[in-house]
Amino acid sequence: MSFKAHEKRVKTLLVEYKNQFKGNSFNDKRIGENDKNMSLEDKMFKRFVAERQKTKDRKSKFNLNDDDFDNPEKNFELTHYGQSLSQIERFEKVQLSDDDEVDEDDPDKGKINAEFVSKNFFGGFKDNNEENEEGKKKNRKEWIEEMIAKSKLLKYERQKERDKTLDLTEEVDKEWRNIIPLIGQMNRQLANEEQKGPTNTKPDDYDVLVRSLQFESEKAKPTDKLKTAEELEKERLEALSKNEKELLERMNKEVEEVNEEENSRLKKKNLKKIPSNHISADDIEFDDPEYLEMQRRDELSKKHKQMNDDLEKSSIQEAEKDQESQDEDKEEQSDDEEPSEDEENEHEEDDDNLQDSTTTDGFKNEKWVKQFENICIKKNTDSIDLKNFEGFLKSIIEKLDPSRDENNKKRLCFLTEHLITYYQSLFKFKSPSKLHIDMDLVNLLTKYIFDFTYKYGNKSTKKEPSPYVAIFKNILNNLNKDFLNMKVSERVFPQLDTLFTFKLVSNIFPTSDFRHQIVTPCLLIMTRYLVQCRIQNVGDLFRGLFLTNLCYGFISKSERYVPECVQFLNGVLYSAVDWNQTNGENKKQVLSDYELSTIYESFKRTKVKINISKKSDKLADLSLVNLSQNEKVQIDDSIKASLISYCIDLLITFSKIYSEMSSFREVFILTKKLLGYLKSENNPIELEKRIVRLEEFINEKNERPREYLKSLIKKPIANKLHEPKIQSKTKFDPRHHNSVISEKQLMTRKYKKELKSAIKEVRQDNQFLARVQLEEQLEKDAKRSQKVKEIMSSLANQEGEYQKIKRQKL
Prior knowledge:
Blueprint: H1 3-11, H2 13-18, H3 40-59, E1 79-80, E2 83-84, H4 85-88, H5 114-120, H6 140-196, H7 205-214, H8 216-219, H9 229-251, H10 253-267, H11 290-331, H12 341-353, H13 367-377, H14 386-399, H15 408-425, H16 439-456, H17 467-485, H18 496-508, H19 519-532, H20 538-555, H21 563-576, H22 587-590, H23 593-598, H24 601-605, H25 624-627, H26 637-657, H27 664-667, H28 669-678, H29 685-702, H30 740-809
Antiparallel strand pairs: 1-2
Helix pairs in contact: 11-17, 15-16, 18-20, 19-20, 20-21, 20-26, 21-26, 21-28, 26-29, 28-29
């Protein structure tokens, strides 16, 4: 017999054996006593709850005010004449029935008069001489019917009068509600006149304290519980990981889109028809960007036009609604509190500044706009005090709080547009000699533009663009339109205002997204400048390098490949090489046809050369003056060396972010050749070090073994497998498995098997009981023998003592 079977018999059979001749038993019915999974604390808690519930039910058994919400079946509600008592207890005069109608002036109203009672009740109807329609006297039944009809008529008239009274009351209440705002406005005007008069008195300290206590509960806001430094650090790390995850998702969005498009393309069996205006890829020339630009410009103009129409419609509708809501709010303000002098003056200033307007053009006539324009005009004459200017902006932002008026959102957008315009105007100068830019002011404007765009324009989508995003879209569309309207020979690099507008875009919007509605068009416009603009002077080279640096800021995180930047930098190196001193080698002998084709035509046709003719020891410092040069001015060799050094620094940065590309060798093969011919004895030492550093880095990356393309190995698709149907282990003759005899034999075999197992279990039970009985009998015998030994030992001691006493007597 196994150990499990023995334990099972001890818990079941042994218990029945011990209790076989007992008439009663003790059962422990305490909560959780027989549950081994419940801890001691849980047991005590559940017992305490059950005890409290028991006492609560016993005490609240006859409590009519206590509703049993835990048991919906026991819920009840006291009523009187079909109406709930909870609705009646509102301290209002409620007419429950016609019989309850009592008038203070006439207490007998609604009661039957004494004449009718004496005439018709208690054996009446005898002195009546009234006759019915047939000329006979009315009997009792007819009198009762007539009495019931009259009582119903009186009840109907009273109900009709009450309904009329209620309608008049509601009409008067409605008129009173319309009059209340006018009374409040009149009271405020009177209070203002009193305060402006010569008899102005300061508010009492006690009144101020009482008012502050009245609104203290409204100002109090619930706060989160205090957190430890570990919890705060954990939340910070979680927020950083979440932001990093979202950043990577937006950066790698194209991979998911490509996979979805590939899957949908494979699922579709029928190809869509090609439209009539379709142009194949063979008909488009790679060197002709006009077709692509016209397509992109048409799409942008359609979207921009539709967006402007929607914004104009929505702005008009929202302005009308805001006008109505402001009028209602001004009328419904309560006069329970009398505002102080400072608060009243502030509201008067806000009302003067924030005038309602139906369109964005209406904001131009407001006071704060004129003040802002006056401050901006001073930039041409005097320098602006940053503290005063920042204080002025903060005061405007406080007045344009959207919580006060929904129309303030449009005012903030209008303010943002003015800030951007002012930001661009800081970089417009007639000549480089008058160039003076306050970078602290630029940083301040960038901060506020970023705050407004991030706070109110972060919910922009393609279907519902934000007006803040629309401002930048409009700027980029105008830049694109102006550039495309120029002739090819007149296209020049943008000035400082446009360059720093691109810089502003990179500071405000996320540049790591794969596709962004502002960043992506901005990057395309910058690369178009690098490709199609002519180089007329050295200032164009400086502006081109600045654009290349901006492009690097756009792609530094995503590491997106922008070939225009590398090719422009190669063009700068091409202009820096003195081809007259290349040991008699011609350009075509040094560079292949493919390498020459990668250099832009603007560098081949320009006469601007930046090769160093004289030896220079140091590099000159570059500034914004170099970016603003538009004339053909001879520059010093030190400035040329600085320009070449700046170009090489940019090539080093681009080579680092493109170092993991499989086509790194082909991208920088022309750069490596040009660096070899750029070395000269006239170069400064720092420039030579940077050239050697770039060459070594390119050679190091070129020596890496390349991974060649391999055909995609498709994983074989496994055949669908069905789960096997497992049958029982019954063995029977297949020749007779459907006959009645086989079923009878199967049942007989099962019966014998079960009988054998039952006999075995009974035999084991008997053996277990026999062992138990044997142990009990042996225990009884042991106890009996022990007792006999104790008795015999006591008798022997007694006999010994008796013999001892007997001998002493003798």
